[in-house]
Amino acid sequence: MRQLALFPLNLVVFPGEKLNLHIFEPRYRQLVQDCVQEGITFGIPPYINGSVSTLGTEMKLLHIEKTYASGETDIRTKAVGVFRVREFFHELPGKLYAGATVEPLPDDTAADLVMYQQTRQLIRQLYDILGLQRLLLELPENFRAYDVAHHLGMSTEQEYQLLESATELERQQLVLTHLETVLPVLQETERLKERVRLNGHFKNLTPPAF
């Protein structure tokens, strides 16, 4: 276990994800300065339902994109791993920002090939319905659940459940279940839109033979 600076936010960050942030609060301006001067990393535990979550993602500062006269900055970061909070501190000694004693969690990457193919097919259907073919072009050849989770319409709570999952197999199942739930709803919505479009048009119908 080790000590880690914390930057709680109302979002879930997945390992491997790149995140751009605008830093304006004094405590996080100090955190960025410490990242630059001391080479430290920091954690983003999701702030959900009025409290800091016990799981979070460790972030590495890649570089400062822009510095403003006010002292605010735009920074680029990348998520490097998941941790569990063991003891939370509202302020680290001598610092303005929060921190915690954390335990790094292992990253299981073994995927189920059948579920992977099923997920790819359902994602294709989802993006076709939503008119998001551009996202299909950006879909990695061998994607992980983490790679697509932000583009499936999941809630923050669902994304956090994904972060809590210990194995890629569990994450695949969550993504697959979500897609199998939302797709029928979207497909029915599309059928309803088509019926609305046809209403009032002249119809060339074949009467039933009886």
UniProtKB/TrEMBL annotation:
This is LON peptidase substrate-binding domain-containing protein. It comes from Hymenobacter endophyticus. SMART domains: LON. Residues 3-181 form the Lon N-terminal domain. SUPFAM superfamilies: PUA domain-like.
